[in-house]
Write a structure and sequence with these properties.
By secondary structure, this protein is α/β, with parallel strands linked by helices. It has a domain at about 25-65 and about 95-115 and about 135-230: ABC-type transport auxiliary lipoprotein component (Rossmann fold, 3-Layer(aba) Sandwich). Helices cover about 40% and strands about 25% of the residues. The chain is built from 5 helices and 8 strands, in the order αββαβαβββββαα. The chain has helices at about 1-25, 45-60, 70-80, 185-210, 215-230; strands spanning about 25-30, 35, 65, 100-115, 120-125, 125-130, 135-145, 150-165. Strands 1, 2, 3, 4, 7 and 8 form a 6-stranded mixed β-sheet that branches. A two-stranded antiparallel sheet has the order 5-6. The chain is globular, with a radius of gyration of 23 Å.
């Protein structure tokens, strides 16, 4: 009897975990595009930003993130199993790859750098004193697209400003890779990191916690302030 009860408990736990997994939004992240003249942008950067956002979204444990780069390896394993050269009891089954319900697209829509000061600062063991102060501003237009209908179901502009003085941020992004690695500790790299973290946090709030959550009210207030600030920067006649 004890074994039966233990088995039932295991089945209930497994079923609950499966149900929880099914409730997670299935998303895929598209390669980022660029509408600016940012000096750090290269052909590979769109893929690097895509990878950074995938890692950040996966670290939240709130999404089922489709890793499209790994699909070829998965398909190869399935094809090998179907060839008859793999033990039937251990081979990967065909037709088990889940498709994304939503696609996340990001476009770098604005980037500005500002350097002030007269120079002449000194550097001691890597720490600068005086001299120029650098700032960077970056904006990313975010879209969430229904993969079945092509409809844009959510959109938002994410902004970040950073300076050479440092920007303390949480998040789970690892070290920058590829072309962006050389910018990791610069104002540009800090602005990029801030935007990626903000995107992931917003998507978790919007798609998982829901439109009526407290965090969405905070984002609505932030968006209102952003729009008001933008309007004030435009000189209308």
């Amino acid at each position: 009897m004890k074994k039966i009860i233990a088995l039932l408990i295991c089945l209930l736990v497994f079923s609950a975990s499966q149900a929880f997994a099914e409730k997670k939004p299935r998303i895929g992240v598209l390669r980022f595009t660029n509408d600016t003249h940012a000096g750090w942008w290269r052909a590979s950067v769109g893929r690097e930003l895509q990878d950074m956002l995938i890692s950040e979204l996966a670290s939240t444990k709130a999404f089922s993130v489709l890793e499209r780069k790994e699909i070829d390896a998965v398909l190869g394993e399935q094809n090998l199993g179907a060839s008859g050269r793999i033990d039937k009891s251990t081979r990967a089954k065909m037709g088990k790859i889940k498709g994304a319900k939503y696609l996340v697209a990001g476009t770098v829509s604005a980037y500005e750098e500002d350097t002030s000061g007269t120079g002449g600062g000194i550097s001691i063991k890597g720490f600068s004193i005086g001299g120029k102060k650098e700032k960077a501003y970056m904006a990313v237009d975010l879209k969430v697209i229904d993969a079945e209908t092509g409809e844009i179901v959510d959109n938002r502009t994410v902004e970040a400003t950073s300076s050479s003085g440092g920007l303390a941020l949480g998040g789970h992004i690892g070290d920058f890779g590829g072309h962006l690695a050389q910018y990791e500790k610069t104002p540009a790299g800090k602005a990029i990191r801030a935007c990626i973290i903000e995107i992931a946090e917003y998507l978790e709030c919007s798609m998982v916690k829901g439109k009526d959550s407290d965090c969405m009210q905070n984002y609505a207030a932030k968006e209102s302030r952003r729009k008001e600030k933008t309007k004030q920067a435009i000189d209308l006649e």
